[in-house]
Amino acid sequence: MTRWVPRSIQALREYDRTKFLHDLIAGITVGLVALPLAMAFAISSGLPPQSGLYTAVIAGFLISALGGSTAQIGGPTGAFVVIVYNIVQKYGVDGLMVCTLMAGVLLFVMGATGLGTAVRYIPRPVVVGFTNGIAVLIASTQIKDFFGLKLDKVPGDFLGRMEALIRAFPTISPVETTLACLSLATILLCLRYAKHVPGAIAAMVFGTTLAFLMRLPVETIATRFNGIPEGLPHAEFPHVSLALMITLISPAVTVAMLGAIESLMSAVVSDRMTGDKHNPNTELMAQGVANIFSPIFGGFPATGAIARTATNIRAGARTPVAGMIHAVVLLFVLVVAAPLAGHIPLAVLAAILMTVAYNMGEWHEVPKLVRLSAADRWVWALTFLLTVFADLTVAVEFGMIVAALVFIRKVTATTTVAEATEDYIEAGRVHTLQDKDIPNYAVVFRIHGPFLFGSTEKLLELEHILPTMPPVVLLRLRNMTALDTTGLHALEQFADKVHNSGRALVLCGAPRQPAELMKEAGFEKHVGKENICNNVVEALIRAREVFPLVKDTCPNNEWDRRRKKREESAEPAATTV
Questions:
Q1: Are the C-beta atoms of residues 467 and 435 closer than 8 Å to each other?
Q2: What pLDDT is recorded for position 576?
Q3: C-alpha gyration radius of the chain
Q4: What is the pLDDT of residue 216?
Q5: Backbone dihedral region for residue 246 (phi beyond 0: left; psi -120 to 50: alpha; all else: beta)
Q6: Under 8 Å CB-to-CB from 324, ≥6 apart: which residues?
Q7: 408 C-beta neighbours (distance < 10 Å), count
Q8: pLDDT, the chain, mean
Q9: Residue 525: what are its φ and ψ, rounded to 5°?
Q10: Residue 462: enclosing H or E segment and its boundaries?
Q11: What secondary structure, in 3-state letters, does 319-334 show?
């Protein structure tokens, strides 16, 4: 049963004053960062700003207290903005509450039944298409407040929204546009010259202070929403009917899938930054509980927030207590400082969300996808277009279908029937490990079978034993029958990890399809062209050449101890991934 125990309880076994001080500082920092984001996500979703704060308080606390990640921060995110807005427009706030409850139950069931690991079976082109499309939609919802346009109602569909914004452009407010641009410049300056200062906080304080002192004629939270109610959120159960639940099945599945994808992606980012390993099923169960309680207290869908999680780790978080403190900080704002939040201009929040939209878009992935196979390009393009011009629900359903079809196509393409000729047998001798002498400064891992989305988790396991590896790591790809963009992305990240640890990575024996994909994607810049070899013989020669270059940068106590232990126990040097 220990695998179901939340990470917060596990952390308390060795909790001390030093860890608490680190968690306290990180919790306060990320709480202040979450303040403008929570309100901005609520407003852009068609809800009052306090709904975002309620979500960050209730869901944020529960996700940290019950989750399977050490530093995960939960709350409202940009991924939900578009779908929440559409649900509110079609079914009202009650419909959104019921949909969130249903999604919470689905997430809990996914975690309880062990389906947390199944989310990774969605290919990378689909995930990138989602995030690109959502980023464009979020940016389009902020144009009105960024430029101070006079528009009574912004249409829910993208084309209708853009048409209405273009017609309303003559009503642009120079004051609000200037304030938004100054806020955006503040964020960019912080990113460039003061990375330790959260840009969202700096922009919020600067923009709000400027508007208040100069009495600028700009729309604020107070003028549009009559401020933020003081005090604790009240529990209120939404009206639930069987007919409404049946209608909301499709949106609830979409919310659950997006929540699972976003939260587990954020947990993976947290693992890479902390060296920890999250429990995906416990994490999904916590996400489920959070989304069940969030609407009861006036909130909306929540999930793991990648940017806030990264901020939490950089601020020094040691345990999930930091995430719980972040929720308490936001609760303090609700109880004590709610009137001050009413002075925040909407143009400032729009500038903050514009940067969020850009950062979440993963635009650096698009050129890589374009260079790869036609199938990957079409999958990415169709997912992106469906997300922007159709409906997020349709895009998610399309992505799930494409994931199954791509998997079937990739696996069937690896099946071959051919005669084992003398030339074939002779050509295989340079690839076999049986008669090769593996030096003690090198270790060999081999990938056997298709390395596609869904199987990349196995490579992540090597990252946790990286400190015990010798200076040269050989990755034998002779039996890696197929590779896709998700697998390639995992190889790139592993190569960077090996390099950052002071070790060298040498690859060898990649078959035609993986070799061509790696070449098209420019994989060689992660390891060096000379470290991609045709066979094991060449790889061992290269290992001998590169060993003098890395033997001093690699911590040698662990791998040397492991070498001696292997020699004593006759442990084989090759390991299967």
A1: no
A2: 46
A3: 26
A4: 92
A5: alpha
A6: 8, 27, 61, 64, 65
A7: 10
A8: 83
A9: -70, -15
A10: helix 457-464
A11: CCHHHHHHHHHHHHHH
Rounded Cα distance, 394 and 388, in Å:
11
Count of positions (residues) in the chain: 577
Instruction: Specify the residue for token string 């039996």.
Output: 479
The segment with the largest mean pLDDT, out of 148-162, 279-293, 352-366, 433-447, is 279-293
At 190-246, the pLDDT tens digits run 888 887 788 888 999 999 999 999 999 999 998 988 888 877 778 888 777 888 889
Beta-carbon contacts of residue 228 (< 8 Å; ≥ 6 apart)? 39, 48, 49, 50, 53, 221, 334, 338, 339, 341, 342
Q: Is the dihedral of CA 66, 67, 69, 74 positive or negative?
A: negative
Which one is the CATH code of 424-576: 3.20.20.70, 3.60.21.10, 3.30.750.24, 3.40.50.720? 3.30.750.24
Type and span of the H or E element at 290: helix 280-296
**Pairing assessment for the beta strands 74-75 and 303-304 based on DSSP bridges:** antiparallel
Using 50, 70 and 90 to split pLDDT, how confident is the model at 577? very low
Model pLDDT for residues 329-366, shown as the tens digit of each residue:
999 988 888 888 889 999 998 998 888 888 877 788 78
For 516-558, the DSSP string reads HHHHHTTTHHHH-GGGEESSHHHHHHHHHHHHHHHTTTS-HHH
Nearest to 115 by CA among 250, 246, 257, 255: 257
Give the domain ranges of the chain.
Answer: 17-366, 424-576
Q: Tokens for 123, please give them.
A: 């290919």
Per-residue model confidence (pLDDT) at position 58:
95
Type of residue numbered 12: L
How far is residue 477 CA from its own chain's centroid? 28
Q: What is the pLDDT of residue 575?
A: 46
Spatial separation of the C-alpha atoms in residues 70 and 319, rounded to whole Å? 5
CA distance 369 to 380: 8
Residue 185, pLDDT above cutoff 60: yes
- DSSP assignment of 164-220: HHHHHGGG--HHHHHHHHHHHHHHHHHHHH-TTS-HHHHHHHHHHHHHHHTT----B
Q: Report phi then psi at 265, rounded to 5.
A: -65, -40
> Residue holding tokens 């120079």?
174
| Residue from 235, 225, 234 nearest 338 by CA | 225
Cα 171 from chain centroid (whole Å): 38
Lookup result for tokens 């994490």: 283
Strands (E), 340-462: 442-446
For residue 233, the 8-state DSSP code is P
Q: Which helix (H) or strand (E) holds 303?
A: strand 303-304
Answer yes or no: are the C-beta atoms of 33 and 359 closer than 8 Å: no
Torsion angle of alpha carbons 535, 541, 544, 546, nearest 10°? -70
Q: Please give the structure tokens belonging to residue 545.
A: 């050449």
Nearest to 235 by CA among 295, 187, 182: 295
Predicted confidence (pLDDT) per residue in 523-556, tens digit: 888 888 899 998 888 898 899 898 888 877 776 5
Is 60 exceeded by the pLDDT of residue 558? no
Q: Strand, coil or helix: what is 513? A: helix
Q: For residues 148-170, give the mean pLDDT.
A: 87
Both tokens of 48, joined, read: 């009052």
